[in-house]
Amino acid sequence: MSNEQLPSAVAPVAMTLAAIAASAAPSRPSGETLSEHGNRVFLGIQQQLTDSSLATGNNWSQQWLALSADNANMAYLAKSIDGSNQFAVVIRGTVASETDMLEDLDVGTVVPFTAVGSPPRPVWVSKGAMEAFTQVVTMNSVGVTLVKALANALVKAPPNPTVRVIGHSLGGCIATMVAPYLLAQSWSNATPRFALHTFAAPSAGGSDFASYVDSLPWVANERYYNTWDLVPQAWTGLAAAKNWYPDPGPEATFDVKAVIGTLAGLPGPNVYAQPGDACALNPVYGKSAPGSYDPNLTRKSLQDFMGQVAYQHANSTYLRLLGAPNVLPGPVVTSISPNTGPTGATVTINGTGLGIGSNNTGVDFGTLPCPRFGVSDNGTVITAYLPTGIGTGVVDVRVTTNLGTSPVVPSGRFAYDGTAPVVVTGINPLTGPKTTQVTISGENFASDAKVYFGNNAAALAQPPQSDRIVAIAPPPDTGITDPLTVNVTVLSNGYSSPASPADEFTYKL
Predict the structure, then answer these.
(1) What is the pLDDT of residues 317-336, one digit of tens each?
(2) Would the pTM of this model clear 0.70, i.e. be above it?
(3) Which of 27, 101, 228, 393 counts the most CB atoms within 10 A of its CB?
């Protein structure tokens, strides 16, 4: 690994290409065939590549795309159309939470990395990374693998093209394996020049692997990481995160340190190392650097700490740190009305980016697709008719377009033939000593509502209203491992409100 460097001119474009891969639609909750889903992702990527407002500037054309059978991994090939004679092999890794992704890498077991022929001596990578790499290089679209697609594209290119292998997060980890694999291939035309660009990537292997990758003849070998991002610290510096985050920000509480300690122990005796010329982003964290942290996630709780980790790891954060515009946003559901009713009822779904008309938009109630719906011209309202086949239960309502699937939100739940789900949307004040009167705002509170601060029941100052409860903060637990920031939960009509940063109360002792 060489000394720290400044971002190169190509970094904003490379990170945008990576972010476009990540923003492509994940599987709809109800599922699509691999062919249907692949076509949806292809259209989503193409829509973004033709957007001249992005750092890619409408200078790239998609050539090939493939998904693994389980949608765990995806890669696409793009060609520059501005005369620069470049190709981009862009890899998207598993779409999951940061901690789930790290646990799935199976870093406690290592295997030889033999896909590149004969390195000077055997080099090893994690078993999980090797499995992901194998998926990427073997998946195909209509029988065409990545190597075949690149070979077909290079045959038509002018001499001495540059191939840039790019990935963010797990995609970046896999890119450090795919790039030397491609470099080792025999190409029928003039040998292309290769570059490697990774962002927020965890380590794939040990020091021998990193040294081998660094020894290869790259045009560029760049590794970008946000100083406050947990993921690229894996697996060489996770312990440092036990001292995060500086004020203003969440704190590495006992629970946080336990999670980090568990993750840090996953490699066992295996010592990992990162290849590439390192470039640290966001060296300043706090009020003096606007956007360097999420101001809504500053409580001293595991929930806010991991939420801040997700923010620091996000594609949008890396794009901002590199001075690049964010990619096009996917759909977001903000509320549904009504949120209870019988099969066949009409439901209004409110949100943003929900599509135009009904072309390429999908609506799901739990695991069932909704066959009848319409989308407003501005993409903010969907009128849907409940699908048949479930009949009972509480389900999440989600919307899919070519730019993604909306995340699960507490206000986006629907109850078939039952009482409406309970949601806490906010509390006031956010902090105070025991006996503080706290006003809890929300939805669908009933007369039987009970309130809990963490594990402790709270007395009510007055009878609950449907959207408002005033509770008296009970004494907190004060054990050495007990957090001072707790979730305020409402239990009513058989529901408990889902925890979120909006319901966190911090005790002042």
Answers:
(1) 999 999 999 999 999 999 99
(2) yes
(3) 228
